[in-house]
Amino acid sequence: MNNDELKEAITALLPTVTFDETGEFLNALIGSEDLLPLMKALRSQTELHFDYLFCLTCVDWKDHLMMVYHLLSKDHKHTVVVKAKITDTKNPEIEAVTGIWKTANFHEREVYDLFGVKFKNHPDMRRILLDEDWPGYPLRKNYVDENMISL
Amino acid sequence: MDVKDTNKLVFPGQVHETSDGGILVTKLDDVINWARANSLWPLVFGTSCCAIEMMSAADARHDWSRFGFEVARATPRQADLIIVAGTIVMKMAPVLKRLYDQMPDPKYVIAMGACTISGGPFFYNTYSVVKGVDHVIPVDVYIPGCPPRPEALLHALITLQEKIKHETYFKKKDDKK
After folding, report:
1. Backbone angles phi, psi at B11, to 5 degrees
2. CB–CB of B127 and A145 under 8 A?
3. Which of A68, A95, B17, B163 is packed most tightly, with the most Cβ within 10 A?
4. Which of B122, B126, B127, B135 should we substitute to test contact with A (largest number of A Cβ atoms within 10 Å)?
5. Scanning every residue of chain B, which has its alpha carbon at the shortest distance from the alpha carbon of A150?
6. Hey, CA dihedral for A41, A27, A113, B137, is it positive or negative?
7. Looking at residue B176, what is its pLDDT?
8. What integer pLDDT is reported at residue B8 of this predicted model?
9. Does A145 touch chain B (CB under 8 A)?
């Protein structure tokens, strides 16, 4: 599928989706509450069949957090980036996609470790890199470390 | 490189030959220092790219065994010297401290490279990096560089030998003033 066909197919799955084509890939912008049903459909529908999650990360925009999922279909050779907006920065939560792509397990733990996003229904939701008693989430913009030099 | 005469493997004392052997005249301090300085056993410990240069210093081209360092030990219980080669992160710091504590006295520390001196040229202002290994363990010799060449490491090792050769153990309390 090319980007226009992908846009059509994704809009059919989720009418509230908006698109951004300024980057390298087609970006599908959604709310965090719509994530799981859309992801399940992207994985399972034969004409989409995104069977490979090749990047999972998060961006802190101060007033909201943006989860970023890079999806690729090895059969159809098409790519889409799903961006899910989390508005609650105090207690950010989103559904885990570990049940759909197993590779998400460690990536979601890393995002939890560094951004503090809690993934619902994740099989093993604990820190992966930092010590378990580490205070705060270092990649958040409001993270304060008194040993660091403020620029 | 400034290699002084004291680095030669000259025994610190005089041997007086007699018909059935000989008599040795020396100072205990000097003999102990001589023995310690010329058989420093480094711990196999490296956390990033400086460790590659440390391995180069050990290989045939630079050959640190010329100066008595060839017996790299994989356990701190048998090591005299730890060359901290690479960035130490907050998670590694307690491990490094434990390794140091497990080494038997006398023990020596070389801080190799910018990361171990100050946290490094790239990562010094990060939540995860220890800003200088001397926050964790005492350091005898610092080598600047990113990473330092094997020659610089050899110079540091010889500098450490110089330091060891000037240590004293058996001075009276009054002498120390």
Report:
1. -70, 130
2. yes
3. A95
4. B127
5. B125
6. positive
7. 54
8. 56
9. yes
Write out the H or E segment, with its range, that includes residue B42: strand B42-43
pLDDT for residue B175: 57
What residue ranges define each of the domains in chain A, with the CATH number in brackets? 3-92 (3.30.460.80)
Cα–Cα dist A24/A148, whole Å: 34
Q: Is the ipTM here above 0.85? A: no
pLDDT in tens, B60-87: 898 888 888 878 889 999 999 999 998 9
Q: What pLDDT band is residue A19 in, cutting at 50, 70 and 90?
A: very high
Provide the whole-model pTM: 0.78
DSSP assignment of A54-104 equals: EEEEEEE-SS-EEEEEEEE-TTT--EEEEEEEE--SSS-EEE--TTT-TTH
Cβ atoms of B87 and B120 closer than 8 Å? yes
Is pLDDT of B7 > 70?
A: no
A130 contact B CB<8A: yes
- DSSP string covering B16-41, please? EEETTEEEEEE-HHHHHHHHHHTT--
Chain B closest CA to A34's CA: distance in Å? 34
* Under 8 Å between Cβ of B104 and B77: yes
B123 vs A contacts (CB less than 8 Å): none
Q: What is the pLDDT of residue A151?
A: 65
Taking CB atoms and an 8 Å limit, are A149 and B128 in contact across chains?
no
> What length does chain B have?
177
Distance, in Å, from the CA atom of A40 to the CA atom of B116, rounded to the nearest integer, reads 48
Q: Given the structure tokens 């008599």, which residue do they identify?
A: B23
**How far apart, in Å, are the Cα atoms of B98 and each of A11, A41, B5, B24, B94?**
57, 51, 37, 41, 6
Which residues in chain B are contacts of A129 at CB distance < 8 A? 91
Give the largest CA-CA distance in chain B. 70
CB-CB contact of A79 with A85 (8 Å): no
Compute the count of residue pairs across chains A and B with CB atoms less than 8 Å apart: 16
